[in-house]
Amino acid sequence: MDDLYRDYILEHYRRPHNFGVLDDPTALYEGANPLCGDRITVMLGIRDGVVAEVAFTGRGCAISQASASLLTDEVRGKPVEEVARLTPDDLLDLLGIEISPARLKCALLSLDTLQHALAESGAGASGRANDPADAADADARLADAAAAPHASPVGTEAVRTAPEPARREAAR
Ligand code: FES
Questions:
Q1: Per-residue pLDDT averaged across 131-135, rounded?
Q2: Which domains are delineated in the chain?
């Protein structure tokens, strides 16, 4: 992994953007990576068809937390319809690093969780209200990632042994 991109990811891990809780979210979903048990909760404040507020909480590896940080930056202020069309490739582009198959589920956890939140709020893909197919699509993508061969992850030792974020120290 290129050092520049690794530093970029670690910076989002140590100081994640939009980490916190919304007082009155209009959409909320807690997603989990079934293989490691890490969880993330995405909260949205949707007003007039726009993601006016977004926040997330949870714990996970650097890739999953950096992904959530970048994704929440990306969707803030955007129309819900546009957010609902985001694809895994869009998120991988945001991450800007090569993700091994074994880490794909980490990278996509935030997007899957976001799409579940939109689906549960009735603002999912294609504007279909509470269409269970939206959540099923997200489940299928996560299952695909989970089924990927467990290749030796590239550069993950560095991120797994990175110092704990300041927010976690502060919470103790
Ligand atoms: Fe748990 Fe990446 S989300 S190891």
A1: 46
A2: 3-171 (3.90.1010.10)
